[in-house]
Amino acid sequence: MLLPEYNRQFLEKVKRGEPVFNNSAKYGIEIKTLSQITVPITAKEYWRVVGVYHLTGPENMSNHHIYCDVIDGDGRRINQARLVVTQGNAAPLYAVVDKPANEAGTNFPLWSHDLATVAVSYPADNPLPSESVVGIRTTHPDEEPGNTWGHHSFYVVFQLTTVPEPTDNGPQPPLIDDNTTTTPPALSLEETIALVGQPQIIPLNPAAMFYKVAQDKKLGERLTKEYDVEYMGNTYRAQIYEKGIVYAQVGDWGNVKVIPRTN
Asked: Which of 182, 200, 218 is the last residue in one of the domains?
């Protein structure tokens, strides 16, 4: 199943008033909800988490990412919406929703030392309040082919939602006066260049099998991300380098081969 197809299941639970779909709680992942964030008193909308999904091994195929989507009140993707990942004291990382409709809107690669929080930061010049998903990491035990230590991925979906009217029942989101808030500064030229370029980055994992083979064979620079090819009922994963294409049948990682090539 393609990741965006899970959105319908997430939204059906929301419409029925059921708890938000989150099969990732057993991995220590939690949702920081509206009642736990600061909301300007005049805020009419916010970004709500409507689904957190841990990919199966066949879906993940040994990746290590946070896949994200941002949708409107009718469940339609909001292209160019911006998300942010924070990790301790490290500088925040941003990504924009710009992928084809049959893929998750955007993604952030994670490495074994990462412990990440993801939220929406959109519109960029004055972001709406956003719930967040905290405690995301990849260092979980081996489960099945495609989901091994350091190779777990999660799909997180946010929806534009109306801030509920205050009631006397249950905890309410803390409200603050708009005059006391600080409007985030507009992005600088350098930040804008970095943001737009983020989706173009080819993630580098020095421990990856293909990368180590390419280094050993002196195949030069990476030219593509890893990609999958279906051939005669089998799935093969490959990556192109300057002087060769490294590939292996998925699941048979001890039998990596190289196809020589030239630019």
From this structure: 200
Length of the chain in residues, anyone?
263
Q: Say how many domains are in the chain.
A: 2
In angstroms, rounded to a whole number, what is the distance separating the alpha carbons of residues 66 and 198?
A: 14
What strands, in cross-sheet order, belong to the sheet with 106-109?
A: 21-22, 45-54, 154-162, 65-71, 106-109
Of 166, 200, 234, the domain-final residue: 200
Pair 33, 157 in one domain: yes
Q: What is the pLDDT of residues 106-143, one digit of tens each?
A: 999 998 888 999 999 999 888 999 999 999 999 999 99
Four-residue CA torsion sign, 202, 86, 82, 57:
positive
Residues 71, 8 share a domain: yes
How many separate helices (H) and strands (E) can be counted in the chain?
Answer: 4, 16
Q: Is 186 left (phi over 0), alpha (psi -120 to 50) or beta?
A: beta
Report field, pTM of the whole predicted structure over 0.85? no
Query: Cβ–Cβ contacts within 10 Å for residue 219, how many?
Result: 23
Residue 226's pLDDT is 84
Helices marked H in the chain — which ranges?
7-15, 57-60, 189-197, 209-216
Comparing CA positions, the residue from 66, 49, 179, 183 lying closest to residue 123 is 183
My answer on whether 10 and 69 are in the same domain is yes
